[in-house]
Design goal:
Elements (H helix, E strand, L loop, with lengths): L1 H21 L3 E5 L7 H11 L10 E5 L5 H9 L7 E4 L2 H6 E4 L10 E7 L3 H5 L4 H5 L2 E5 L5 H6 L3 E5 L4 H7 L6 E4 L3 H8 L6 E3 L3 E4 L4 E6 L3 H17 L1 H16 L6 E4 L27 E3 L2
Helix pairs in contact: 2-10, 2-11
């Protein structure tokens, strides 16, 4: 009888243990919550929706609002929170964090158009070389990683402390232009255009530099990295990754008239060795717009 009771107790314990783990929920935080990151958040949700042996099948993404970028990175680096962030890669970031080396923006963040004051459009129309563009003052947030790329390429930079301040300073002629990712610029005009009606999107110029964006996690969180990497690969295989990307970016790309733009390439010296080139054919093809003229002068 005692033996039977012991067996029953063991079976009950195993059932409770199995039930608990079957319903276990891993809570993963993210701090990039404003509208600029909506596509990246949806892609992260998609990647985590594919089950993987490294983590339970149920994951809850927890947004942390109003966390400054630098603080959010510190919280993940020091393991205060278990989280995921999306960042353009460079050597320093890959030393501090664990990258999932799948370019999630298909190279789009490295293609930049310019925010200018509308009254200066004619001046920009007459620019025919990168040397002429270097003579103008470029405003940029000093904590952003690609400011070093612009410095390395000898652009004339006015560093600014805060993102929102960029728009008031451009309107007030503190600098001449503000380069923005082609996935960012139209939402920004919609958001800030009524406040700063002098600001518009320049019509003829774009900058291009290699700038792959990855998801990053804490250096020791290999299980979470494996889960995200597996999910991204599955989404690539079944086509849902590309569909989500085009859902968020196709209309914006069409509005920017790349067929008439002069594209000046810049060197990105901050990339880790052997960084793969992102596949830009997802959007840089005839299905979206005529291919631009790309200059390497």
């Amino acid at each position: 009888m005692e033996k039977l009771q012991s067996i029953i107790l063991v079976c009950i314990s195993i059932s409770i243990f199995s039930l608990f783990h079957a319903n276990a929920v891993e809570r993963i935080s993210y701090f990039q919550t404003d509208s600029r990151y909506q596509y990246r958040t949806e892609l992260l949700k998609l990647a985590l929706s594919y089950p993987h042996a490294s983590l339970p099948s149920s994951i809850e993404l927890v947004p942390l609002h109003h966390i400054p970028h630098a603080r959010g990175q510190r919280l993940i680096e020091t393991n205060v929170i278990r989280g995921v962030m999306s960042l353009a890669t460079n050597q320093q970031r890959e030393r501090k964090f664990l990258p999932i080396r799948q370019p999630i923006m298909a190279g789009i963040l490295g293609m930049r158009v310019l925010l200018i004051r509308g009254s200066q459009q004619q001046q920009f129309t007459q620019i025919t070389s990168i040397e002429q563009l270097r003579q103008l003052r470029l405003g940029f947030v000093k904590s952003w990683g690609d400011i070093e790329i612009l410095r390395h390429n000898q652009m004339t930079i006015i560093p600014v402390a805060r993102y929102k301040t960029m728009f008031s300073m451009l309107s007030a002629r503190r600098f001449d232009f503000f380069p923005r990712g082609i996935n960012e610029v139209i939402p920004e005009i919609e958001r800030f255009g009524n406040i700063y009606p002098k600001i518009t999107i320049e019509k003829h110029i774009a900058l291009l530099y290699p700038y792959p964006v990855y998801f990053f996690v804490n250096k020791q969180d290999i299980k979470l990295a494996n889960r995200i990497e597996h999910g991204l690969q599955q989404a690539l295989n079944d086509g849902s990754f590309k569909r989500l990307f085009l859902q968020y970016h196709r209309d914006i790309l069409k509005q920017l008239n790349f067929g008439i733009r002069r594209v000046y390439t810049l060197e990105n010296h901050t990339l880790p060795p052997n960084t793969p080139d992102p596949d830009m054919s997802w959007w840089l093809d005839d299905a979206l717009f005529d291919k631009p003229t790309i200059s390497k002068d």
